Amino acid sequence: MTMTVQSDYSEKRPPLRRILQAFVDIRELTLIVLIAAIIIVMSNLNPYFFSFSNFRAVAVGMAPTAIIVIGMAILLASGGFDLSVGSVMALSSTVVAMLLLTGMPIPLAVILGLILGGVVGVVNGVLVTGLGINPLIATLGTMSIARGIALVLTEGFSVSSLPVSFAWIGKSDIGGFPVIVLLTILLVIAFDLAVRHTRFFRQVYFIGANEKAAMLSGIHVTRVRIILYALTGVLAALAGVLLASRLMSGTPTAGNGIELQVLAAAVIGGASLRGGEGTILGAFLGVVFVALINNTMTMQAVSIYWQMIVIGGVLVSAVALDMLIRSKRG
Amino acid sequence: MNATPIRDGEAAPPLIQLDAVAKSFGSNLVLDGVDFELRPGEVHALCGENGAGKSTCLGLLYGLHKPSDGKILCNGKEQRIENPSHAQSLGISCVFQELSLAGALSVAENIYAGRAPTRMGVVDWPELRRRAEALLAEFGLEIDVSMPVDSLPISSRQIVEIAKALSLNSRVLLLDEPTSALAPDEVDALFDVLRGLTRKGIGIVYVSHHMAEIFRISDRVTVLRDGRHISTLPATQTSQEQVVAEMIGGAHPGDVSGSRTVNGDKVVAVTGLSHPGEFEDISFSINAGEIVGMAGLMGARRSEIVRSIVGLVQGATGDVELHGQPVKFTSIRQAMRAGIGFVPEERKTEGLFLEQSLSDNLIAASLAEHTSMGLMRNGSIRAASRAAIDAFSVKASGLSKDVGALSGGNQQKIMLAKWLKRVPDLLIVEEPTKGVDVGAKFQIHTELLRRAAEGMAILVVSSDFPELVSLCSRILVVHEGRLMGDIPAEQASESVLLQMAAGTTLPAAASATPDSGAKL
């Protein structure tokens, strides 16, 4: 009475097909190949591209997006969504800057800024889970409110003349690498591993795949969701603090539109608005890919308007290709 | 008093007890003073028609609902069960009819959803796999537990679901139709596992429609009807017939049977319909006034065949003639215009607009009929809705009520009425009575027979073989995309159909084994 079940996965296939299949199944591999291709082609086209200073500029520029995409990718995997990240970034950058001007010690100001991001996240989480408001609408609301508060607090002006020592976080190097980039990479690795291997984050995929089934399995869906929104808020606030430190000013207009860049990158990296899938590494590679395309176009003197068109095209093609592969696989 | 096998079970308090529990949703009283108890080491079957309150009972015990009145006791202590994780901490686990698995995740991870063994918060993958393999081995299922659940056949997924409930090491196991997707030998394996559990003193609440299975596994049987407790008897002191009689109350609708006179013209003729990889060389015809069945097991491709005919699935080759004219539909709209109606299998996802009103649902396939100069005509919509409701005796408090709030049987009637009101020449119905109670089933069959008598040609795709035998004049049997036979209903019995559908090629010669039991 022993049954053995054969799956599509264990079928014997020719090696070439298996390799192709792996690329289809594992978005990270596809992106690594595409990123390598961009680097090889561009290195031959433009002598300034393959230089430490260019890569450094790209990495520093994309750091806020890469930090926020961690939270967004986890939220997407849980079937959630957050539009307020750009506003939270602005809010925390201005609030931390204002606190510093009062003479508050830097660590305390930074921690309060991060807590503020967490609070906005908890509000998002409660609106979505407790009141059952659609995440798109709920975070559209908090996006407007958080940005509004940042503008009211500063009357629309940047907050500058910050203490010089605050620049350490955003401007200094360790062993020739910018602190901001090292921190980003550290966070990406830590969260990628956590999402793959910790019990708490594994629950995210159950919730994203089938919320009701997760609830019936005894998972605290509401609690997990609120924590994920809070985490996303904290990460967005961290991005805001890093930006403030790099620019040495708190800017109420910072991060305008970053939510869409983050979403696009996460989806290119294998996340789905349906939930239940996606990895942090994939989302991060999505950010790198988009940043390199932008860098490429800037170096080749493509106008910023054309860059928007190209990024939109890349996003739609990535999703269309994914849908096509899914329908083929049935 | 009762002949329960466990002696000390009579001294120990019941594992769980419902004491005069009532539950209402809004103004709708679904449980009315129900008493129920589960003793250590017993399998206690809970029987009743759809809507009798079985699922609500399970929901109360698993923390999905709170009782409106009465008490729930666990081990003799009154408990207010807040949510499923609270129920689990009280030692209660549940297997639901609808599978609750996350398809993209591995088998092992699904079994220990949210409870994977960890070392300092990090999942211990080897230990997780080892435990999952050990659990599945009890069912004789040897699979790679790191495979995604999606890649398993349905029956294995159901076993994974059951293993998931067992992994909690609960004292109480609630099972809702656990065998609906299992093959006979898998049912045997499940029952062996369940008996092993009861020997350890675990109590099992077993909800099922399969009378034969209930009497194989249960120690006691409780019958509910319309939210009331009807009886609780040791299985040895009652019978399948008695339980069925108690479930449906005084009125026994009995089997409908049609006049089965076929004299109309040929409405549809299908010749050599094939779709590579799906089905091959399907040929049949249906005359006006005839109800023809299509029988098959899961994976027989019945749905793909009929959906190719109505233009929902593209790419099939072969000929379809409607009233002698060759047709090839590329959309359901074309098929509808040519006089075909198609009632899909999945009520909730394919058939109904659950958040729309009853009358909106009824007219969804015939909007043009109720429109003049671009405006909807409310008077004609109301009249048509009333007519449909009367024809099927739908129980609903008003035409503007959301369809989602109706019972499964009434939803099914609305879905059928929506297509019948177009008066198609050919009606194709998938699973017309899936998950509906005996009364609704009787009314649906009666209405189909009446329409056929008026000259409609009807093709009924069903997995309910007794239904096909009693309703149809001919039955097409499909096995893995091939037509195994086209047999008159008089020569068909449940066992003959089953053998043909399973691909055993003994048509009429099959012995008339007695039916394995009433299947409602």
Task: Please render the helix and strand layout as text.
The complex is a heterodimer of chains A (330) and B (520).
Chain A: E1 3-4, H1 15-25, H2 27-45, H3 52-77, H4 85-101, H5 106-130, H6 135-154, H7 167-171, E2 173-174, E3 177-178, H8 179-197, H9 199-209, H10 211-216, H11 221-247, H12 258-268, H13 280-299, H14 304-329
Chain B: E1 16-25, E2 28-38, E3 43-47, H1 54-61, E4 69-74, E5 77-78, H2 84-89, E6 92-95, H3 107-111, E7 118-119, E8 122-123, H4 125-137, E9 141-142, H5 154-166, E10 172-176, H6 184-199, E11 203-207, H7 211-217, E12 220-225, E13 228-234, H8 240-248, E14 266-275, E15 279-287, E16 291-296, H9 302-309, E17 317-322, E18 325-327, H10 332-337, E19 340-343, H11 347-351, H12 358-363, E20 371-372, E21 375-376, H13 378-392, H14 408-420, E22 426-430, H15 438-453, E23 457-462, H16 465-471, E24 474-479, E25 482-488, H17 494-501
Helix pairs in contact in B: 14-15
Question: Can you describe what's shown?
Answer:
The complex is a heterodimer of chains A (330) and B (520). Chain A has 330 residues and is an all-alpha fold. Chain A has a two-stranded antiparallel sheet. The two termini of chain A are 31 Å apart. Chain A is globular and about 65 Å long. Chain A has 14 helices and three strands. The relative contact order of chain A is 0.18. Chain A is 74% helix and 2% strand. Chain B has 520 residues and is α/β, with parallel strands linked by helices. Chain B has three domains: 8-248, P-loop containing nucleotide triphosphate hydrolases (Rossmann fold); 253-339 and 424-520, P-loop containing nucleotide triphosphate hydrolases (Rossmann fold), CATH 3.40.50; 354-421, no CATH class. Chain B has a six-stranded mixed β-sheet, sandwiched between helices.
